[in-house]
């Protein structure tokens, strides 16, 4: 009989909230967070109710501004930008470095907020915080050479990002943009992360970083955060539907932009035999329930290798650990080691479950389904946001699971017989961020990899967004605008010589680094 679990001591949402009130009382008030604009914390916006995906309990919701107030915030950010761009680089570097020190001091609180707000298992939440801090330190150490001969933009950088990596994507980008001489605006993701981002922004603002943090619906704030003439650059991370609207707006305005969008990242298996290596990596591919832009939800497998593939894949996927990220046997036990917590909310869980059921009804073959009885939950807790890992063979073409990224712990497998079929299946979404081809023959990899429409392609190993000097972008519909990563992130938010063409994917040209 499985032991009865309890919440780890000191990790409840009320505990986290009281710590936020103590660390940054200027940004947290009673049961709400504040917006940050015009260099002051503002008790404005209509606060929406919010619940944690972890157990359905109430947490702080976003204080959503209206469009008119957002316009005021953007105008104030331009004033900050005009002052900040003239701050000498040594001072900017010192302020960003001081911000990193205080973020590191409160890294465990930031990680705990990520657990409650977006359901990250503890190990991954802490890694998100640490990647942000370590990644920005790399820029602090090397920024002088990166900005030589370059100048800040004419207006602040507007950041609109998805909820899944608040620290290592959004806060990381904001601090590098500020280091390069720009004031920065960040929109709180609609689905989660408001308390974590508020705490991080409060710590940065104390060190003099010109940051604006606002909440609101994308439709209502887009006029201010995307189209406003004061905005010098739009940085967007999210889905293709919203990204397409942003891409149209920035193209019409001729505005600097970095738009990272989803794509169906695929893992191909062709003339391959190192099944132990594949089995070792399969559980890691499910980290955070595949809720990341570089997840691999699709395997494209040579038909005559399918039996060997399954012999490696199925035992590996059966080891996945699912459950409440803070549930332990004894209150003082270490944090549980989990691969998957909840998805972002109950609505997303139902959407995935409905898509799986519909795909099976239309002919997909279920190869694996995790069992809720194996998951680690507290007695009686709400589990409506949890999805057990599922693997389907040959999803029908009519299913969203055939051509789109599920953003949840759902794998699909497609069988192919020829190299042409392999490439067609790996390129199903008109561009991706990453891909992998597992083949024993290096020459085969070298021949096929250039025909896979992904920005990064690995030979038998997964690719990721990367840190420090690793570049990042996307091909096809998965990316619009300047590529980032390494020095390209700084180049994307600064002005170089007249006539400079940035590496990126633009309507008028595509240039790889």
Automatic annotation (TrEMBL):
<dbReference type="Pfam" id="PF00171">
    <property type="entry name" value="Aldedh"/>
</dbReference>
<dbReference type="InterPro" id="IPR016163">
    <property type="entry name" value="Ald_DH_C"/>
</dbReference>
<keyword id="KW-0560">Oxidoreductase</keyword>
<dbReference type="InterPro" id="IPR015590">
    <property type="entry name" value="Aldehyde_DH_dom"/>
</dbReference>
<dbReference type="InterPro" id="IPR016161">
    <property type="entry name" value="Ald_DH/histidinol_DH"/>
</dbReference>
<protein>
    <submittedName>
        <fullName>1-pyrroline-5-carboxylate dehydrogenase</fullName>
        <ecNumber>1.2.1.88</ecNumber>
    </submittedName>
</protein>
<dbReference type="InterPro" id="IPR016162">
    <property type="entry name" value="Ald_DH_N"/>
</dbReference>
<dbReference type="GO" id="GO:0003842">
    <property type="term" value="F:L-glutamate gamma-semialdehyde dehydrogenase activity"/>
</dbReference>
<feature type="domain" description="Aldehyde dehydrogenase">
    <location>
        <begin position="45"/>
        <end position="487"/>
    </location>
</feature>
């Amino acid at each position: 009989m499985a032991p009865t679990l309890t919440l780890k001591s000191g990790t409840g949402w009320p505990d986290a909230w009281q710590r936020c009130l103590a660390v940054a009382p200027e940004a947290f008030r009673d049961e709400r967070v504040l917006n940050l604009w015009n260099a002051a914390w503002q008790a404005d916006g209509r606060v929406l109710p919010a619940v944690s995906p972890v157990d359905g309990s109430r947490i702080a919701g976003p204080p959503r501004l209206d469009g008119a107030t957002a316009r005021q915030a953007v105008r104030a950010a331009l004033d900050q930008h005009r002052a900040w761009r003239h701050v000498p680089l040594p001072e900017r570097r010192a302020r960003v470095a001081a911000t990193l020190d205080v973020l590191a001091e409160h890294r465990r609180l930031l990680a705990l907020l990520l657990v409650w707000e977006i359901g990250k298992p503890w190990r991954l939440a802490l890694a998100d915080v640490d990647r942000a801090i370590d990644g920005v330190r790399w820029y602090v150490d090397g920024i002088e050479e990166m900005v030589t001969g370059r100048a800040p933009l004419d207006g602040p950088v507007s950041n609109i990002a998805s909820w899944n990596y608040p620290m290592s994507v959004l806060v990381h980008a904001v601090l590098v943009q500020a280091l390069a001489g720009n004031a920065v605006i960040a929109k709180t993701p609609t689905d989660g992360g408001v308390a974590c981002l508020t705490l991080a922004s409060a710590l940065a603002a104390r060190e003099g970083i010109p940051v604006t943090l606002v909440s609101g619906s994308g439709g209502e704030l887009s006029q201010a955060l995307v189209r406003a003439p004061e905005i010098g650059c739009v940085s967007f991370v999210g889905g293709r539907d919203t990204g397409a609207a942003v891409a149209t707006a920035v193209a019409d305005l001729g505005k600097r932009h970095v738009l990272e969008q989803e794509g169906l990242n695929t893992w191909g298996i062709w003339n391959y035999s190192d099944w132990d290596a594949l089995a070792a990596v399969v559980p890691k591919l499910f980290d955070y329930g595949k809720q990341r832009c570089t997840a691999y939800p699709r395997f494209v497998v040579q038909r005559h290798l399918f039996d060997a593939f399954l012999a490696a894949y199925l035992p590996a996927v059966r080891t996945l650990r699912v459950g409440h990220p803070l549930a332990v046997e004894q209150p003082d036990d270490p944090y549980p080691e989990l691969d998957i917590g909840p998805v972002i909310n109950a609505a997303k869980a139902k959407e995935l479950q409905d898509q799986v059921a519909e795909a099976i009804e239309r002919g997909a073959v279920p190869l694996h389904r995790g069992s809720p009885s194996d998951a680690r939950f507290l007695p009686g807790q709400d589990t409506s946001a949890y999805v057990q890992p599922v693997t389907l063979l040959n999803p029908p073409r009519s299913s969203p699971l055939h051509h789109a990224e599920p953003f949840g712990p759902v794998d699909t497998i497609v069988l192919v017989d020829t190299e042409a079929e392999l490439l067609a299946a790996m390129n199903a979404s008109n561009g991706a961020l990453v891909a992998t081809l597992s083949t024993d023959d290096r020459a085969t990899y070298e021949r096929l990899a250039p025909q896979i429409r992904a920005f990064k392609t690995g030979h038998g190993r997964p690719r990721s967004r990367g840190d420090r000097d690793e570049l990042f972008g996307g091909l096809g519909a998965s990316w619009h605008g300047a590529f980032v990563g390494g020095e390209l992130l700084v180049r994307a938010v600064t002005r170089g010589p007249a006539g400079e063409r940035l590496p990126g994917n633009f309507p008028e040209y595509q240039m790889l680094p």
